Amino acid sequence: MTLPNVRSLLILPLPLLFLLAPHLPLVYGSSASSNLTPAEFAAKPFDVIVVGGGNAGLVLANRLSAPPSTLRVGLIEAGADYPVDDLIDTPTAGNLLGNARVGTLLGNPTYDWELQSVPQPALDGQPLQYPRGKVMGGSTAINSMVWQRGSRADYDAWASQFGNGPEWGFDALLPYFARSESWHPPSPSAPPLFPDTSINFTALGEMHGTEGPIEVSYNSWLTDLDAPAAQAAVAAARLQPNTNPDGGHDASMPATGTARTVGPVSGQRSYAASAYLSADVRARSNLEVVTEAAVSRILWDVSGNVTNAKAVEFVSAGKTYTVDVRKEVVLAAGALKTPQILELSGVGNRTLLESLDIPVVLDLPEVGENLQDHPVTLSDFRVVPNVVTLDTLGYNATFRAEQAELYKSSRTGALSYTSAPLGPVPLQSMTTPAQLSKMRAQLESYIASADLTPMQKVQYDVLRDIVDKGEDGWVEMVVVPAGGVLSAPEEGRSYLTAVAIQLHPFGRGSVHIKSTDPSESPAIDPRFLEIPWDFDVLVHGAKFIRKWISTDPIAPYIDKLVTPPASLTGHAEWEKFVHGNVRTTNHPLGTTAMAPRSLGGVVDPSLKIYGLKNVRVVDAGVIPLTIGVAIMPTVYAVAEKAADILWKEWKLDLVVQENHLRDEL
Ligand SMILES: Cc1cc2nc3c(=O)[nH]c(=O)nc-3n(C[C@H](O)[C@H](O)[C@H](O)COP(=O)(O)OP(=O)(O)OC[C@H]3O[C@@H](n4cnc5c(N)ncnc54)[C@H](O)[C@@H]3O)c2cc1C
Ligand SMILES: *[C@@H]1O[C@H](CO)[C@@H](O)[C@H](O)[C@H]1NC(C)=O
Ligand SMILES: *[C@@H]1O[C@H](CO)[C@@H](O)[C@H](O)[C@H]1NC(C)=O
Ligand SMILES: *[C@@H]1O[C@H](CO)[C@@H](O)[C@H](O)[C@H]1NC(C)=O
Ligand SMILES: *[C@@H]1O[C@H](CO)[C@@H](O)[C@H](O)[C@H]1NC(C)=O
Questions:
Q1: What pTM value is reported for the model?
Q2: Relative to the CA of 355, which ligand 4 atom is closest?
Q3: Are β-strands 375-383 and 362-363 bridged in parallel, bridged antiparallel, or unpaired?
Q4: pLDDT, tens digit, 9 for 90 and up, residues 325-353
């Protein structure tokens, strides 16, 4: 998840990291030396080419090249490669506040594609800012590091309702979640969010892996607002803290605080590049990497009725290169970019492709459809004086120097902080039964009158089941202990930004190319809040925030309602507020969904594109339906599973002879 966008950056002059510079030896942009030049890369023979070095792509690049595999793997990443970079590595530099204040990762073309949606009619005609990682590590290099797992129902739907088979259900996916992580339990000395709740660490540990590449830990330092805000959220929602949020039910604030991808000893971001592309992996002779190289399309070998990917075209520094591929292409460019590559390659909606004079290789109209995301609304509050939040780093030079020293010496303190209280809340917690049944009736009449795709019919059944059961989260409450995201902070004052994320919208959008120019961003249209239900849910979320901050023990900390002001009260005013205050949580998915063809699926349960012999998609685009939390851990799990599928399919566990492999092609 994330909060800031470019609009918020403009009103925030405070360069936090710049202020920290005297205390920290800042390092930027030391590129990895083992990468090939574009010409060297293009001249190599590859069995597999992975397109995109992000959340999913680096898992594949690592696992497919791991001994005893002798596959020759080529990885093409559009962004640059910064194995050591303090802006990426230091949590506060890369977390919500850090980004909003510094503007160094988000809204910085060195790291961010800086995509933008088309104007959204339900958001006063405003576009949404869509940051995406354009750097080795992809979005995991710039994201907020929140580590959550969805509920059992989220994944079981992939298996049953979406017809992908039992190996895609929650229980079957657990080993792959575990495989990606080195989970560290909360330190006994860490400040607790819920001092009165006892946690069964054995049960918690059973849900996690301890030998995977991604370091997962909990905060060792909290602001003054985390615990009271988390406790008040649980009280306002009439819930108990969740003592095992990764065990199959995601609802409520985690008793441990939310886990995050930070090494407990290093105090640094652990992400796809640092974890899956470590120095020893880079040193493998069967893995080659090219960066600052953007794939424009796949080139095909069409013989008889079989279409085979035979090469990949990419552009680097204005020059076009072609690299041959013997076995397979794995597209991992993310939910907003993989459809673009497919369409530029002639795979997609025939009408669209023909209108752009792109030769149609495969008419697959669902490519780029089914775009889903998590819309979010935010409020901010000034808190009483002398409360330590991340704002304190900005206005108190003594505190800042202390914290920088602490981070340097022990890798703890404010600079290691990431948002700790994130709690998905069932809709029943924030509506009266009468309000909910009125909304449900309106939703039914919308669904009855809408022209639904077969995919939507299945999705809507799954979603209605989740909302009606009321066991899992529908809106997520998040505490950001800082101001500056919505309004300009007053000098010397601390703030709380409270967030409500809609986890399962019914609206469906799309992403499609606008031209044949690969450097032109596609038209991203998530169609946020166009359905009355989606809008009403966020209005209830925004109103619930006010109830939340009026609840003990956070209430005494709140000094002033800034956005929206206390004078905003009537329902119509709340509606107006929400129309003007919605952003994306940056979890786009579903644009190349894994589902049967009869439902409009684009990839099969082995993640192969229907109708093509040797092209797979492994990224957030294959997730067929929103999950009730942030999606990075799920993308890692999907990619780990994909790697396993390929190991089995290609028998990589046998030390194969090169010519044996050649025979298989
Ligand atoms: C600002 C932000 C904050 C977020 N916060 C969180 C969070 O706290 N927790 C969480 O769980 N999720 C979070 N997310 C979401 C999560 O990080 C992403 O959904 C997820 O990482 C996407 O994984 P992916 O593999 O699909 O794509 P990415 O990780 O984005 O990888 C795609 C890669 O492909 C490359 N690429 C794209 N096009 C091309 C091309 N044509 N040629 C070559 N390479 C190409 C990109 O440069 C990128 O490296 C956040 C996302 C953002 C943007
Ligand atoms: C803690 O969890 C473990 C594993 O699930 C279980 O065996 C044990 O009984 C639990 N302990 C308590 C005190 O509940
Ligand atoms: C493609 O051609 C092969 C060989 O001629 C044939 O066996 C196969 O059934 C054909 N497949 C389709 C989908 O037409
Ligand atoms: C294909 O694209 C055309 C033109 O944009 C559009 O009218 C049509 O609805 C699309 N088909 C599908 C199945 O999305
Ligand atoms: C600034 O921080 C220091 C160190 O934490 C603290 O002692 C002091 O009271 C703070 N000053 C203000 C004005 O908040």
A1: 0.95
A2: 4
A3: unpaired
A4: 999 999 999 999 999 999 999 999 999 99
